[in-house]
Amino acid sequence: MKKLILALVCAVMMGTMNAETLVAYFSATGTTKAAAEKLAKQHHARLWEIEPAEHYTAADLDWRNPNSRSSVEMNDPDERPMIKQCTDVTPYDTVYIGFPIWWGICPRIINSWLDNNEPQLQGKVLIPFATSGSSGIEEAEAYLKQTYPSLNWQKGLLLNKR
Ligand SMILES: Cc1cc2nc3c(=O)[nH]c(=O)nc-3n(C[C@H](O)[C@H](O)[C@H](O)COP(=O)(O)O)c2cc1C
Question: What is the domain-level CATH number for residue 89?
Answer without folding.
Answer: 3.40.50.360
